[in-house]
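Notebook B, p. 112. Complex prediction, attempt 2.
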Amino acid sequence: MKKTMLTTILAASALVFAGCNSEESANESTGESGAFEPSKNIEMVAPAGAGGGWDTTAREVARVFGETGIIEKNMTVINKEGGGGAIAWAYIHGQDDSPYNLFVSSPPLMFVPLNGQSEYGHEDFTPLANMIADYGAFAVSADSEWEDLNDLFDQMKEDPESVTVVGTSSPGSMDHMQFVRIAKAAGVDPKKIKYVSDQDGGALTSVLNGSVDVFSTGVGEVVEQVRAGNIKVLGVTAEERMEGEILSDFPTAIEQGIDESFINWRGFFGPPNMDQAAVDYYEEKFKELSESEEFAEVRKKYGWNEMYLSSEEYEEFLNNEYKEIEVLLEEIGLGN
Amino acid sequence: MPLTINRRIALILFVIAAIYLFLSFQLPNYPYAPVDADVIPKGLGILMIILSIALFFSKAIETEAEKEKRNIPKKELLVLLAVFAMIFLYILLFEIIGFVIMTAIFIFFCSWFLGYTKWKSNIIVSILFPLGMYVIFVFALGISLPKGILPI
Amino acid sequence: MNAFDGMITGFQVALSWEGILFVLIGVIVGTLIGMMPGLGPISAIAIMIPITYGMDPAPALVMMAGVYYGAVFGGSTSSILLNAPGISGTVATAFDGYPMAQQGKAGKALAIAAIASFFGGTVSVIMLMLLAPALSSVAISFGPPAYFALMLMGLTAISSLSEGSTIKAMIAAVAGVMVVTIGIDPQTGTQRFTFGNVNLFDGFDFLIIALGLFAIAEVCMLVLNRKNRSLSDDQKLGSLKVTRADLKEMSGPMTRQSFVGFILGVLPGAGATIASFISYIFEKRISKNPEEFGKGSIKGLAAPESSNNAATSGAFVPLLSLGIPGSGTTAVMLGAFLVLGVQPGPLLMTDRPEIFWGIIASMYLGNIFLLILNLPLIPYLAKILSIPRPLLISLVIMFSLIGVYSISFNVFDLYMLLVFGALGFAMRVFSFPAPPFILAFILGGMMEQAFRQSMTISNGNLAIFVNSPLPLSLILIALLSLVIPGLLKWRSRRKLANM
């Protein structure tokens, strides 16, 4: 039920932790000395409704910033839902050089514009810092005959029509492309991969009842089902084994001889023309946050992996990722 | 064959359906789905065309009750139009001027325009309602509403 | 641990002073937020999440559950009084609730809604308690073909949702599905009818359509009739006394639709909104006097109200026993669990029985609280209708505008509300029924997606819909429900002719 689900999710985009206001991004410039210090509340946009990954990251980061006093000014989270992030991105883009408007993002910041659904992509914003990494997982029903990725991919090479992959997002976006990326590296013809999208919360169900064969999703979504013995994970997109109970049992694609990985990075950006002094300021603060014990707790709670990248490293990383995805989309004929 | 009201509606629907159908044929092709994004819209467009033709030739005559429903005096229609115009102005301005002020103005003038003469209670409601809503949303629930020019 | 031992553990949690206190807080906050324009269970839960930081998980989750079903409970108030549904689960409540209030029976309508909600909530908690583990297999039995068949079953009822011209009802329904095709198509990522406008990429929110077609269109009618005096002048608001005859009349629909609602709530993706519509149609179809529906029928009010509350508890089945959130609301609920360090899933019942059973036990309590708290409020709520017409009109307009704005904070959606309001008014003036439009909008979109998912899975082979028993039987029911009424009519006509 797409509409009801959206309805409910949209309804929650109402959320802001403290009364804050979006119109309040005056163009105060940095101090005369050149160093930047915020003189008013900072607005953090989660380009989605409440409850999702972006929202949770933004809220946890804002909370820990406040509780540890790393940033003294209030950081308020606002939700701007719509167009898979495009509405929020257009909004931030309009903030031009404001040092008080940040937003959280992840690979959809590339997938959505590459699919022609947003005017703005990562190159239109100022990367501040990456904070965490997450990975994709490919899960099948527990009674499936496939034991590892190679079993699955062998079958797909032999009879591509017999295997259906399900994900939450539409084709050309993350759940689809992380699978295509690994499968292609294993020698599967990426044009013959059957993918269906289920945005109403039925993806896992469809795998459990055998309607579809493979669930392409994030590792966080599958841990509990694996613990309960309902599904098994054939492979994850991490470069090396993850740490943690259950997580450490998941074999990577690389150790199964498929030389490819995919990182679901999550980090923070500012408006396009953010002043260098402000960039330096935030970069420093995010670094401090990433190294703090309190944020380590948060990472543990949600099973996130630490992946701090400074503004410069981040930009380079993003540009490389972008190129790879672009080529892949081009190849399966979804490029724009 | 007289052009009854249903026939006129049927003609409008036919045009809308035709435009919709035309746009459905413009939808880009996606290589990997056996049933592509354009199939259902095309079906709907054709169905709507059939239905509009059926409505055009339908023999059903308007009942008295139905006739009564669309018997609206011109003047009343203008009143309705004015209310819509007020809502439009509200939407246009409330993010700029702010929720509390615009809502107060809207409630006062809209009620007054529609014939509410007790201006004292009108003023009280138009001030208390937006203030109450604002306090509940912003301070109790933490959901931001545009504050506009007010320094709250 | 069997259900009985479990419930003992559960009641120990729910009946502790902490348990009682937090259930109470939960349901009060939930009801109040549910009554606010545009804010439904999902915002209610999300608003409460930060408050639970650092709390003991059992009372915290008992409170969150209370917030959830409390919001569904409270959502019916504005549907009944103003024809302006505050949440999507109570759109169907307005079909008969609002006419009833207009007939001077607002108090009674609110009381019936409260009783039906209580009944639906309680029956489904009993089912949740007894069947949660067993039902988890039902929750996952529906694949895309079965969903397609289920939606088809719902859509066959379009004709029964309207009086007068069947052609006009069909036109309204087709238009409803046309509107739902606007936006990015999930199966292909293709933009359909968006004209490149980013505001249209996600399609229209259900509440925009519902508030436009019902609340704003009603406002237009009120404007035209504003010179008629307000209800209070010539009619009493009516006592909220529900007579024994009323109770008898609503007992059938309440019982049936509590089951229907619960089962639909269990299915991921269906949820309270679809449940309330299907229950409404269900009762209308089997009713001996379907012509009363839509004109203030007690059955037509009790059915969706018991169903949407039952669906709310039903949604806890996949959440608690499988860790699968079947809707946006339960997805946020899952987030609330995680924040408190509790992972819902197949192991919850054995690992944390006090939480699993505590939540279930607290729902009994919560439903009783809701009934006790809400009944005395009814006379005050019903007074809203004695507000003079011109002022009431302005306030309903504001209610709808705030409602839509707090969904997306997007001014574009407000303009769309105005457009759908104008459409709704035109539909009324020219006698096109709105319920088929709404129903087609809500079922049509999901039906299309399920159909195309099925076709991708089967490589384009239609046999997928008849190859397995579940979709096949649902499709057969859908066909029979189309054919049988016609046959009956034909037979009775022949009888008449032979006489």
